[in-house]
Amino acid sequence: MKVILTLSLSALMILSGCSESSSPKSTATDQKGSVSSPSTTTTEKPKVLKVLYATVEAGSEAIIDAAKKYEKQTGITIEINTFPYNNLQEKVFSELAQKSDHYDLIAIDTSWVPKLIQHIEPMSAYIKNSKSPDSIKLNDFIPKVFLDTSVAKKDAPQTNPPQMEEIDLDKITSAGFDVWSLPLQSNVLTVSYRKDLFNDPKNKEEFKKQFNHELAIPQTLDEYLDIAKFFTRDTNNDGKMDMYGTTLMGKKHEANFVDYKSFLSDFGGNIFDDKLKPVFNDEKGVKALETYGSWINQYKVTPPGALTYTWDEVATVFGSGQVAMGMNYHDMKLDPKVKGGEVGYFEFPGVKNGDKLVRGPHFGSWGIGMSKYSKNKQAAYELAEFLASPEVQKGYLKFNQHVTRNSAYEAANALPDAITKEYYHVLGESLKVGVGRPHVTNYDQVSEAVQISVSDYLTGKKDAKKALDDGAKQVEALMKQAGY
Prior knowledge:
alpha+beta; D-Maltodextrin-Binding Protein, domain 2; 2 domains; six-stranded mixed β-sheet; 43% helix; globular; disordered N terminus
């Protein structure tokens, strides 16, 4: 892992030193926000378009299937090279650092955008000049997903775009922003749970006696904790706990950062304020960390190994039937050996703020962007538009793709499998309230500093306030070093 990160940093250093003047001219936006026609190095239909993409984490199977259909429709050969996450990151950085024209389209994780934006072709002019308006339909994208994944200001990608309930391209460009990719896959924290345990009449009766309310889908973190306490038990009467209420991802890892960030957002907190000053060590941040840590250390509603868990271990533990509820970024399944087991899904619970329920599950997305150095920009855009189009996204449902359009989630309501339909409903609703990562060039460093703070508290090295204060000081220094 360290070797990969070092290589990526080297590529980043090369990228940051690339000269803007040597790259091809593309979309121009005037002071009023009007967008000129895109310029490309060739207007002829290419014989081949090459795509650099991720593997299963970004739904490669669905994308490859759609590309085959595009080949039949257009006669253009689509070559898709897929790499697992870390290898893909290195490949993307390397290709763009060399200003290579080998790839026309590139899969872009949202967190990479600030580091790569000078090397990606802006799309707003292509969108305005689209030959197929039914394929682009910006206002069909889930707004939170589109704005977080695709919209950024070229010279200040850390700036949040204007918020809107429906995507308005004119409003985006007039505010100095542009569109840098089209969202294809979006992952958000959801909860898988043992529906068979929740529906058991004995459990329902006993739970109501203990907690004085019904055993039902929890809406708040407090309700969730009650259920986690209830299902943490010794099932075989040997004096040892062998069933737990929930999972958490407590290892010092990106997983613990996004776990904590979800609790932080529930309490109304943020990693940064509008001036990029770290504020996760404020009262809301401390409350979030103490709540998170109490589930592991005080109430002990997680398995003993929770401090070593990331998303992989959580899936394994849930699958074994060891927990009643589990949080992750995909629909977790039960091992067939778990007799009578039935899985259901619900949204990550929130925190009441007056009459309002605040939810803030972490989410992150994959977009498909155009290399600035492609010689086939118009053709590349048309392929990207096709891959992200409403009808094609509906076709992604058979691959369990985490689609990004409202119309695709509406189509999921007609799926024959009730469990799959339930998951899509929860996924779509969660994306509408999700909270993305900070859009900063040194995101990995910021994440690691917060990971250390969370880990220091969970392992008892520091109290919550001290751990977060130390982390905030580290992040503040990192932001100064990065030029913010």
